[in-house]
Amino acid sequence: MASCSRSTHPVPRHYSFGLWLTSILLVTAATTPTTKGCVEGERDALLDFKTGIVKDPSSRLSSWQGRVDCCRWSGVVCDNRTGHVVELNLNPDYLNNETSIGGEIRPSLLLLTHLERLNLSHNDFGGIQIPKFLGSLTKLTYLDLSWSNFGGAIPPQLGNLSSLRSLDLQSYGLSSDRLHWLSRLTSLRYLDMSFVNLSMASHNWLQAVNMLSSLEELHLPYCCLTDLPSSLSHVNLTALATLDISDNFFNSTFPSWLWKLHSLSYLDLSISMFHGAIPAGIGNLTGLRWLYLGYNSLSSPIPIEIGICNSLKLIDLSDNSLFGPIPAGIGNLTGLRWLYLGYNSLSSPIPIEIGICNSLKLIDLSDNSLFGPIPAGIGNLTGLRWLYLGYNSLSSPIPIEIGNLNSLELIDLSDNLLSGSMIDKIYDKAYVAIKIRIASSTTD
Fold first, then answer.
1. First vs last Cα of the chain: how many Å apart?
2. CA angle 266-174-113, nearest 5°?
């Protein structure tokens, strides 16, 4: 978990001088393309930006020099018709052994008045604050400052970027006391603030985010959030397809507005101190494909309505206190690939309907109180690779149909009341795992 303590960082040196220089350049910059392609004033602005980069061990900016066409420089993309710089991508290419750059973000960037995409991610700017003047690049539609060792408070001036569609600020060193500035990003579709310390903004984060009616992806894990309102007067997040607010401190039941997000396909609420029941309202999320509710304190039966969500590919309800049966409706989830129900208090036979889920690759039902036989239908799951049924009260002979599982890599049947000899049709490495993991079961 990221630290929730606040920190401050000094304003970069030469900041005032840089603003003065920018004002001079704005007056004198040329606005027509040179004979070699790029706009002369924008080339000069990039050269000035380069002077602030004092760390470039792999010489990524070595092509930035002289009167060479800046549209041919590494990381620079120009409009083919006008020659204006529209994209600056300084994310290092590790496959080509590029390393992080670092130094100062000079305000000469403001001369790139047609800039639409700015990517400074995965660099090392030494803990300096995100420059406030980035909020004046009003044509930006894409801004990625993630994992570049920026620090301190996120400047609310970023809220001026009304054309922004994607904003990525994920980082350990950043914080924000209030998120009111987010509500002005009315074009935003993607927002990632993972690991940003939002403990001081916890009281209003949802109200700010709820203003973003175009938002499709929201990532706020490890943000030290504590407040989660149980209701909203109006839910604007009708386009939201991905919601990740895992690894926070909500200590809450599930809010009612959650089941109104009908466009959701990915939901991660794991490790966030949720308690109480999984509501039947989960059946409203019929487009849901990925469901992560593990490592909470949920205590209820698994709602039968989960069988309505027939687009599900993954269910993770592990490490809770769920009880009762595994719903037979699990058989409706024919596209399900990964099923994690381990470390709960489920008590019932394994439903025979599980044998209909022929897309399953992993079943983990370990550490429950399941009883009765292993359904022979499991032998129909020919793509199954991992089967964990250990630490239950399963009894009866091990079904011969398990021998049909030619893709099986590991099976754990340990600490049950099973009987029957093992069969030799199982894939060799899975067979070894079986022999090891049933050591405490009864076999003949």
1. 48
2. 90
The DSSP-derived string for 284-319 is G-TT--EEE--SSEE-SPPPGGGGG-TT-SEEE--S
Q: Is 169 exposed, middle or buried (0-12, 13-18, 19+ CB in 10 A)?
A: buried
The CATH label, of 3.80.10.10, 2.60.40.10, 3.40.50.2000, 3.40.190.10, for the domain at 14-149 is: 3.80.10.10
Instruction: For residue range 175-234, list pLDDT tens digits in order.
Output: 999 999 999 999 999 999 999 999 999 999 999 999 999 999 999 999 999 999 999 999
Query: Cα(133)–Cα(137) distance, rounded to whole angstroms?
Result: 8
CA distance 123 to 58: 12
Q: Are strands 102-103 and 53-55 parallel, antiparallel or unpaired?
A: antiparallel
DSSP state letters, 224-245: ------S--SS---TT--EEE-
For residue 95, the SS3 value is helix
Closest CA relative to residue 368, chosen from 408, 430, 438, 317: 317
Q: 292-350: per-residue pLDDT in tens?
A: 999 999 999 999 999 999 999 999 999 999 999 999 999 999 999 999 999 999 999 99
H or E, element range at 22: helix 15-28
